[in-house]
Amino acid sequence: MPEPLSGSHDTFSLAATWWLPDWQGSQGARGSDDIGGGDHDGNCEKNYGMHTPSNIDNRYICSKYNYNVTSSLKCHVNCRCKDEYKYTSSNCSGKYTVSGSSCEGKYNQCVCKSEFKYNSSNCSGEYEVSGTSCGGNYNGCTIRPECTVSSMSCTYGCAGYNSCDRCTSCKSNPDCDVSDKSCTYGCASYNSCSKCTSCKSNPDCSATAVSCDYECASTNSCGICTSCSGNPDCDVSDKSCDCGCSSTNSCGKCTSCKSCPPSDPCSAPIVPVALVTVTPATTNAATAVFLPASAVQDGIVTAVVAAEEDV
Questions:
Q1: pLDDT at 25 (0 to 100)
Q2: Which residues face 106 on adjacent strands?
Q3: Looking at residue 116, what is its pLDDT?
Q4: Which residues contact 206 (CB under 8 A, 6 or more apart)?
Q5: Chain Cα centroid distance, residue 178
Q6: Can you give the residue ranges of every domain in the chain?
Q7: Number of C-alpha atoms within 13 angstroms, CB side, residue 189?
Q8: Residues lower than pLDDT 70 in the chain
Q9: Of 24, 45, 50, 43, which is closest to residue 35 (Cα–Cα)?
Q10: Torsion sign (Cα): 284, 286, 290, 294
């Protein structure tokens, strides 16, 4: 706080006016201009350079109080402003201003100007004191720089906040943090970051199995039959029979031959050329007739059969 101006304090001296008739009258009174009496009016300031007690309050200090100037007048003597009344605009300026009570143009306080009103109790949170200070207070209260920014709008959530609780960074898409699935048969679905999240199943497993009469010839990677084996009877070779086939398989292939009759070494080869119905008198059975080659010419029997064989 500024110091008061240096210099001596104002003092007052008692000044008396002596009227010649009074002095001659053994100084009986300093009053009127008559020879023997009568006082001046009771004005301490005007007539005696003193102070009327009613004009002196606790701002002053006097060397004498209630001095009997006359029989009917009391005055305070040598009164001056107390030492605390020392501030004027000359020694209390700049950040400061005079305040409090005054005494003869001087004040008893020199305080910070009213603009210095901000401190941590009335300027906090998103605001902070600023400007210049005086007596622990500041003349400014401004919003903190970090509180002037707007919070970021985040799709996947906020990653960081500043001291004013403003979002300053965003979280990335969590879908981008996952690994792509490696799929043998292709990807079935993707997330928002185009990462494969599920695989297609083996398409072979959804195939319909072939129904085979015989055996399955081949299966796919999922073990489902895709083709059938053919009739194995068709893979065998036909038997070549001299005397005819006696049996065939399911594919019509000859699997066994008829037995041929024994041959007669004394006769020509017997060739069965026709099956004729012979009705002997003793039997109704049909017989197969085998004729020698010489007995058949151009398909016509030319000889009589001597031997017969039952079928």
A1: 43
A2: 103
A3: 97
A4: none
A5: 17
A6: 20-110
A7: 5
A8: 1-41, 264-311
A9: 24
A10: positive
